[in-house]
């Protein structure tokens, strides 16, 4: 199972010089908790950072910094990326080791393809568990029908 199979391809991006207010408005408008910061290199969007809703609260609001005094570049964390061909379980181990909940997914040229989040993986696992429960229930029903025949 590769990361590219399960990552979210709809990613909200911005540039280094975007204001913090604009980033917060993007998060609100798109109902997301993060915005990826990219640098345009030709036709490639190269991820260079990430700003999360938590960054805005901890780094800006809690410190009472004026919104117009900082840009994305001042608040973002460096982007730790993963290849879309990487194994999903290996990627989860790397995320755990790095202590990150979101990881930009890139192609072989380093261009942004999507993002893998803990929420995406939880949804995948929940779907898999639901399928297993349905399988067991179906198996029990089928066995019951077969065994009840004379």
From TrEMBL:
Residues 7-67, 75-132 form the CBS domain. The keyword Zinc does not apply. PROSITE patterns: CBS. Pfam families: CBS. Keywords: CBS domain. SMART domains: CBS. InterPro entries: CBS_dom (IPR000644), CBS_dom_sf (IPR046342), Diverse_CBS-Domain (IPR051257). PANTHER family: CBS DOMAIN-CONTAINING PROTEIN (PTHR43080:SF2), CBS DOMAIN-CONTAINING PROTEIN CBSX3, MITOCHONDRIAL (PTHR43080). This is CBS domain containing protein. It comes from Nitrosococcus halophilus (strain Nc4).
């Amino acid at each position: 199972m590769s990361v590219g199979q399960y990552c979210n391809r709809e990613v909200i991006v911005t540039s280094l010089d975007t204001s913090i207010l604009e980033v917060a408005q993007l998060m609100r408008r798109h109902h997301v908790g993060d915005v990826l910061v990219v640098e345009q290199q030709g036709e490639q969007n190269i991820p260079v950072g990430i700003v999360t809703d938590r960054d805005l609260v901890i780094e800006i609001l809690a410190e009472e910094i004026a919104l117009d005094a900082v840009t994305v570049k001042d608040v973002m964390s460096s982007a730790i990326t993963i290849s879309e061909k990487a194994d999903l379980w290996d990627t989860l181990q790397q995320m755990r080791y790095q202590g990150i909940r979101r990881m930009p997914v890139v192609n072989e040229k380093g261009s942004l393809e999507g993002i893998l989040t803990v929420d995406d993986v939880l949804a995948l696992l929940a779907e898999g568990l639901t399928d297993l429960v349905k399988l067991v229930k179906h198996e029990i029903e089928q066995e019951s029908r077969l065994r009840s025949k004379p």
